[in-house]
Amino acid sequence: MHTDTERCVRAVRSKDARFDGWFFTAVLTTGVYCRPSCPVVPPKPENMVFHPSAAACQQAGFRACKRCRPDTSPGSPEWNQRADLVARAMRLIADGVVDREGVPGLAGRLGYSTRQVERQLLAELGAGPLALARAQRSRTARLLIETTDLPMAQIAFAAGFSSIRTFNDTVREVFALAPSELRAARAPKRQGTSTPGALSLRLPFRAPLNPDNLFGHLAATAVPGVEEWRDGSYRRTLRLPYGHGIVALTPEPDHIACRLTLSDLRDLTVAISRCRRLLDLDADPVAIDDQLRTDPVLAPLVDKAPGRRVPRTVDEAEFAVRAVLGQQVSTAAARTHAARLVTAYGEPVEDPEGGLTHLFPAPEALAALDPETLAMPRTRRTTFTTLVRALADGDLHLGVESDWPRTRDRLLALPGFGPWTVDVIAMRALGDPDAFLPTDLGIRRAARELGLPSTPAALTARAGAWRPWRAYAVQYLWATDSHPINFLPV
Predict the structure, then answer these.
(1) Cα distances (angstroms) measured from residue 44 to each of 28, 64, 374
(2) Rounded Cα–Cα distance for residues 205 and 74 (Å)
(3) Catalytic residue among 95, 432, 434, 440
């Protein structure tokens, strides 16, 4: 979008928050870069230059605006609705792969050469993987500086910097303030009870956001010991690259309140990225709802409760296992099966607030179980054991960098994997916004009530008008039912 100067100028002049994260405005006269909704008086058009990423602005010598804080804007929805090389690379960078494995590790996961990855990122985003990772590290550093009392040296390494000097230089360059000045300027801490060692932060999103089906789904399907709904918050354990964590996510009118407790602060960036992905916070609800409203059947559903998101996952392998456990059984039965696996094979963790006890079992642990101990039909046991063995051996990889069509084909080749299982994994684990579930019982029931075709083939043909947002249409169709997944828990 940043190449459409006229459209960008209109967005800046109207201070349209819907475009935050889509592009950034660099102001030639002040040397700062802003989000489109910056509250200051818009500069003259001839003094504005538009960039596709914060990293590109920083590489061009601009510093972040102190008023609108563009480093805290929602991420571009492009990376969650596309499956090409650039989108997959951006999802991996957000997951901290460059900090952990370097650019060669990023390229290796994508199956391309480092030169090809750098060339494509530079062409579309105006910055290479190192610059994009550097911008992410600066955001993490600012978050730690402003929300904790940790020593600066500890913050530097937790944010992913290789040295304190690099940390100091980057913070000064990006924010035009030294780390100590950023800390001195932070807002006073709120009084009240908090968990010792917990980090409290705000996760921004593009309005509107309807929390009912989002948190309702997560709470209704929560696995005891791993997830819970408590005091208006969804809480769960996280398996992270350097350790584990516990997160509490609370819906607020203009943000999601996030409270993180981590065993290793180096996992902060990854934890935030996975929480945003879990709640689909980088979606563009206005564009999605406008497309779905073109169908007269869906329009009343969208108008009644706009801004529905797709509840996703923090661990793709975990969700695939749970999808198999949920085949042809009720939500309660699927939770029971998963809870038994957690108790027997999950890794115990300490929860300062109580209630959460384990990480969900890793595929390696599940691959070692005795199939005869599984209380399910023999054919589903075969499906389960084949899946966890493929995940444990690395024959099947489910991750943010997954190629959606190729992964679908790989899943369909496994015994017991039909269209419903593959599509629900594509929708909630892989993040495909166009995944559709025409064979789902709830979708077929909703279709009959709304006068839509109820057979899978006819409904799929009818849903062609909803593309590329059929996964969101699923959320609106599910919402016609009284199932607990559609309601925010009391």
Answers:
(1) 10, 19, 67
(2) 6
(3) 440
